[in-house]
Amino acid sequence: MNKNTAKVKDKLSQEKRTKQLKKGKGYETRKKILKAARKIFAKHPYHVASIRMVGKEGGFDHPLISYYFPSKEKLFEAVVVEMVEEFDAFEKTLYEGLDDYSLKKGLPIFINRIIDFHYENPELMRTVMQNTAHVEKLEDLPGFELFIDFLIHFMHTMQKTLPIKFSLDEVSRLVYSFSALIINYLGASSSYATILRMEPDSPEYRNWVQETMVLLFFPRLLSIILPDHQAAQQEP
């Protein structure tokens, strides 16, 4: 177990203990604070966001937020833990049934599942985008280990799930590029959709993301990951 993974597990266990302690009268208040904080951190990078913004968003007084979260750092870490836990739960179903499809049919399904998750839980990728784009050193960001673990775990799971034909380095580059691009398209959907003259939450933009990802990655996945005899069986 590396240092980052150990820190992540410790933060997750601390968060679970906190949830257990806070259940009851204050549990719902804590959840409401986290809900407001998620919206703020998804709109503003960590160094710009403030407890005052969170209070205004949720209608809370500063002392109430401080009672549950003594600092902005602790609040941000709690938000990241909650979002990563949601993605972990989603990832358990991400690959279900894909073995029954050819790559040509399975890849769009896989991408659509990620797109659907994002629109149901938009704060995760938006928060990743806000902070990776505005922080020179990711280690300066509270809870950065959770971001790193989230990205690495997602990439490693893809590598384990797909049969590897070429070098691990080559597949790693492909998976890393896939992850970075879809996080950009979804986490910064307002920017990309505006350029395309679409609405970021529209079916039109969602289809554009799916079709673009398939267009870019299907040919390379076909040549790198599938064995020769399987590639020959792909539909034209």
Structure report:
This protein has helices spanning 3-22, 27-43, 51-58, 62-68, 72-94, 103-120, 123-134, 144-161, 168-187, 189-195, 203-224, 228-231. It has 236 residues and is mostly helical. The chain has a domain at 3-12 and 79-231: Orthogonal Bundle (Tetracycline Repressor, domain 2), CATH 1.10.357. Helix 5 (72-94) packs parallel to helix 8. The termini are far apart. The relative contact order is 0.10.
Highlighted features:
12 helices; elongated; Tetracycline Repressor, domain 2; mainly alpha; 0% strand; single chain; 236 residues
Architecture blueprint of SSEs:
Elements: H1 3-22, H2 27-43, H3 51-58, H4 62-68, H5 72-94, H6 103-120, H7 123-134, H8 144-161, H9 168-187, H10 189-195, H11 203-224, H12 228-231
Helix pairs in contact: 1-8, 2-3, 2-5, 2-7, 5-8, 6-11, 7-9, 8-9, 9-11
Report the average pLDDT across residues. 81
Structural class: mainly alpha
Label the overall shape.
elongated
Number of strands: 0
> What is the highest CATH level, the class of the domain at 3-12 and 79-231?
Mainly Alpha
Question: How many helices in DSSP terms?
Answer: 12
- Uncertain residue segments: 228-233
CATH fold-level assignment of the domain at 3-12 and 79-231: Tetracycline Repressor, domain 2
Helix content: over 70%
Annotated CATH architecture of the domain at 3-12 and 79-231:
Orthogonal Bundle
Following the backbone from N to C, one meets helices and strands in this order, namely HHHHHHHHHHHH
